[in-house]
Design goal:
single chain; alpha+beta; Phosphatase 2c, domain 1; 2 domains; eight-stranded mixed sheet; six-stranded antiparallel sheet; 14 helices; 16 strands
């Protein structure tokens, strides 16, 4: 259906054709001149069209953050929840939230996540497939479903072997459990499932796993692996006579993960891209595979916070925004940290008065005009699917069991 603006334009064109055919040339020229002046007046801000253009250039007020926080259920398609931890072993206690793009609410967006007591993952279906009538959300969902299936098997096997016990881990006997729980192995399982099912589409992926450090050391030979050691973590674990823990991260594309300790960022993944707004991705027509993922192992402690999120979060929130906001919400004893951060990203995506990480990267890549950004014409965030998991490494004294997954 045509809008009112289209009807007005068609009417003006019709009148001009009639005047050109019937009216005297001098009269037609004067009418056209008046129309040009009126058009310039409205575009430059004098009329109602000008005010709407000014708003699109970035002068509209941002969303009311307090109002959004007070009534999150009013956001179309939003979902959130919690995933409890294990009863008697170190594990991940998580909250999660998904907010679909406004135009993708009916299908729930194109992001997918999974959570188990020892792992979590996020996949962002590449939206460009929509132009071909393909739902990339099917690929991301299958990718995470396959990873979750094997993660649950590995979780059960590791618990059954006493992999988090005080006596340590026999790396030779538990190598198969590492293969089941390592993030790249989980990514490969989901990727293979998508290939077997011949699902068309593509997706980024970021998966984290909590492992005994002795078990994760068996993967240290991977060329892509980077190890982030922490003397503080080693000293604390030795003093508590606990088996050292680590968080292993596998990331491919522009989703990502962050680890915070005592309010400070210990680690943050780096984007993997082929170019601006063109992430590495698994799927149809892509040369990228799970073996191309960045692999990082970080010494971890109970109480550390791990964030796994799609680019709908990282494109709109700077790392310091996440750190500061998380500290504020923790001070209020918020039990829904993921939801709160997702809402924060949702509001920032629509705040045209700020320069977002997405816009800053566009300038650095030479794809966005710095002058237009400074004038407000290209400022603001990026409206997108938003998915986020916030996990806390729990002490064995914490008592809950279960897992949760969602698309």
């Amino acid at each position: 259906m045509r809008g009112a603006g289209t009807n007005v334009v068609l009417f003006v064109i019709f009148i001009n054709l009639v005047l050109f055919w019937r009216a005297e040339p001098w009269l037609w020229r004067r009418i056209v001149a008046a129309e040009v002046l009126l058009f310039l007046y409205t575009v430059c801000g004098g009329g109602s069209w000008g005010r709407k253009n000014a708003a699109r250039r970035g002068n509209e007020p941002p969303l009311d953050m307090q109002g959004v926080m007070a009534n999150p259920e009013l956001i179309p398609g939003i979902k959130w929840g919690e995933s409890p931890c294990l009863r008697s072993a170190p594990s991940l206690e998580s909250t999660w939230c998904i907010i679909p793009h406004p135009t993708k609410v009916d299908k729930g967006g194109e992001d997918a996540i999974f959570l188990t007591p020892l792992s979590a993952g996020c996949a962002d279906g590449v939206g460009g497939w929509a132009a071909r009538g393909i739902d990339a959300g099917l690929y991301s969902s299958s990718l995470m479903t396959g990873a979750e299936r094997v993660a649950l098997q590995g979780c059960a096997a590791l618990q059954g072997s006493g992999g988090f016990g005080g006596s340590g881990v026999d790396k030779s006997s538990d190598a198969s459990k590492l293969e089941m729980l390592h993030p790249v192995a989980l990514m490969k399982c989901g990727y293979d499932d998508c290939c077997r099912q011949r699902i068309v589409g593509s997706s980024t992926a970021c998966i984290v796993a909590l492992l005994p450090r002795a078990l994760s050391d068996a993967a240290a030979g991977q060329d892509s692996q980077r190890i982030v050691h922490s003397d503080e973590a080693a000293e604390r674990e030795a003093a508590a006579q606990r088996e050292p823990l680590c968080v292993c991260v596998g990331n491919l594309g522009d989703s990502g993960a962050m680890l915070l300790r005592d309010g400070q960022v210990v680690f943050r993944t780096e984007e993997q891209t082929h170019g601006f707004n063109f992430p590495r991705q698994l799927g149809t027509g892509s040369q990228d595979t799970p073996n191309d993922a960045d692999v990082i192992t970080i010494d971890a402690l109970p109480g550390d916070i791990i964030i796994v999120a799609s680019d709908g979060v990282w494109d709109n929130l700077f790392d310091d925004d996440v750190r500061t906001y998380l500290a504020q919400r923790q001070a209020l004893n918020s039990q829904m940290l993921a939801r709160d951060l997702a809402l924060h990203a949702y509001c920032r995506a629509r705040d045209r008065s700020r320069v977002s990480p997405f816009v800053r990267r566009g300038v650095e890549a030479g794809c966005l005009d710095k002058k237009k950004i400074e004038s407000g014409m290209q400022s603001g965030g990026k409206v997108d699917d938003i998915s986020i998991i916030v996990s806390t490494i729990t002490d064995p004294a914490d008592a809950l069991t279960g897992h949760h997954s969602t698309r």
